[in-house]
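Task: fold both queries, return tokens.
Query 1:
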Amino acid sequence: MYSCSRLTAIRLSSNNFHGQLSERIGNLKSLAFLSLVNNSLTNITRTLQILRSSRSLTTLLLGFNFMHETMPEDINTDGFGSLQVFSMNDCSLSGTIPHWLSKLPNLEMLFLHNNHLTGSIPDWISSLNLLFYLDITNNSLTGEIPSALMEMPMLKSDKTAPKVFELPVYNKSPFMQYRMPSAFPKVLNLGMNNFTGVIPEKIGQLKGLVSLNLSSNQLSGEIPEAICNLTNLQALDLSGNHLIGTIPAALNNLHFLSKFNISNNDLEGSIPAVGQLSTFPNSSFDGNPKLCGHMLVNHCGSAETPLITQRRKKKKSVFALAFGVFFGGVAILFLLARLLVLLKGTSFMKKRQNNNSDDIEATSSNLNSEYSLVMVPRGKGEQNKLTLTDLLKATKNFDKDHIIGCGGYGLVYKAELPDGSKVAIKKLNSEMCLMEREFSAEVDALSTAEHDNLVPFWGYCIQGDSRLLIYSYMENGSLDDWLHNRDNDDSPFLDWPMRLKIAQGASQGLSYIHDGCKPHIVHRDIKSSNILLDKDFKAYVADFGLSRLIFQNRTHVTTELVGTLGYIPPEYGQGWVATLRGDMYSFGVVLLELVTGRRPVQICPRSKELVKWVQEMRSKGKQIEVLDPTLRGTGYEEQMLKVLEVASQCVDHNPGVRPAIQEVVSFLNTIDADRGSRGRVWLSVLRGREATPRRRRS
């Protein structure tokens, strides 16, 4: 191996190598990627000195070695000038963050977590102009969070991070993430140390941050309002500190936030009852005795609904009547008896609407849950009678282990009903702004919209302030899972005929809500995770009922912007308008995902968004390079290029150029995957040239 002068990548992780690294590895002058993770190597100083000879190194992964040694304080870094990724994690190293790291001008990612490093974060950290990923979690670092961290150029910029080395080898190694640029957004992980002081106000400058972890430190003071400027943030963990004050309401503006934790602090006041923060579980807020909100045991007095207030007034009235009876006489007794008769005669629906439950979990011990039926919309026929108690039992009181999805409207739970059938229950966040109207709109839409490619709707349930929607459960999850979350070699593979079938089915479902049902529906959040697959991989469009309805005399609906990063049409940034043509843009992105196998937004460094990348490749006549590498050479290239062309029309910047959904359905239905690999199929491509037909490999 040591004589392979042109060798560029070596992965020797998770073996039983022990002792010291051979000096002969320095002969590999072209070596760019080296992973020695999870062995039993020793003498870290000597290892680094040997590797200096491999001057082409861009990625060096040494974690889980050199156990309990000391981090070298000063070494000669000549030869490491190209190093971009350096990991020395999980080594139980003592010492400090060494100054020689400041001499690595191209360093982009630094992993020093799970060691025993002491001292403070050095000010020279800001001199690493390309560093966008820093993980020093679980050390013994002290001092305040330095202002130098707030000046890191890559974290201050919201531009895409640079591209790191990618090793074109795939297996099931847990360290495969280091060879996948898409695994690395812009991250600052400082958790589980002993940092003190306040969170700097200047943290709002780090607008490129996608993940910020300051948990389990000794930080004090208030949560700075400036954090609300980090609009790209998807994960925020401030738990386990000594933070005080209230939760800034502006945190609701972090629309992409999917992980949030401020538990175990000393915060006070009410949790915002609407918006993004209201969708997170109570575990995100636990351990703050002075904090109150609908998801906590400690409810806010100021947050009481008019319904609750009304009930309490009724209780006071009953008490007053009883007091009068005690002192009073027959007349008051008569009035009380009459009041009891009226209350007893209240209809079931009134009882269900006026229930005093603030939290659906509390209804498990409430006998009224036995009478809260799952309602079937008109025209849907009869279903076996289900009660809220049935749903609570089927989800173990909506236990977190039953959660299969989440979104801006609430959580989705998997449940197995008494008759053995499986359903998905969407538990809507009832205290969100306009939730009553949103709920009514969805029920109305679902009660009239029926199609073979729409997720079947079972019914709904109202209990107090809680709203539940019940759908059929889809055994194979979402298209997003199958395209982007199955990296192991053992995972089943979506071949082209299956992808084409999914595209055809999803287009037909979208066509129905656009044109088949009355009133028409703008989905507003078409994405691969909203295309669900049953046991036979039949495609179903989900969550269409969460959108606003389009009446026949309108061409658009003005409302709050709904959508997911990477799928949102460019014109939505110019006004709060959701349109059918906007849905077509989002569906075009889904078609591009099917053809390319890529995510709409690559969080990875220096990678372009999918739409922009495809448009640039097409302009250069490189359509064939856009196709998913795992599908090339299978004989379906011509079909894939056809779908690529119609997808490109759907994502055109000009909404007027985008085809209507009926045109896309008709086009997709002309493609027959069973015939795609036989015969000579010609496709006109860029500038009128014809693509050379390819034969299927034998």
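Query 1 returned. Query 2:
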Amino acid sequence: MKKFKDIIRITLLYARRVPRIIGTHAFLVFLLLIILSLLISGTIFFFTAFSLRNVEPDIQASQTAFKKEIFLGILDIWEKRSVMLQEADTKIYEDIFDVR
């Protein structure tokens, strides 16, 4: 039991020193974290790349049907919008900055 308490006390003692050590060696810690993140992301990338290499894609042929009624409805909406845009261009607005 005493040994367990000593282990906890020593762990807490070092845990208090960790922020100061990180702060005094910030650049080296930053480089270490970048290298660690590159190693982890590279490992994940290669495991996914090699695991997907052996998988065959399941291609299912799907039938697409052209629905003429829907196409004509969309075409009608587009024509109405183009007419509305052309009418908006012909409106002449008054120049509010013109000094007369």
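Both queries returned. Flag for query 2: Residues 1-53 form one domain.
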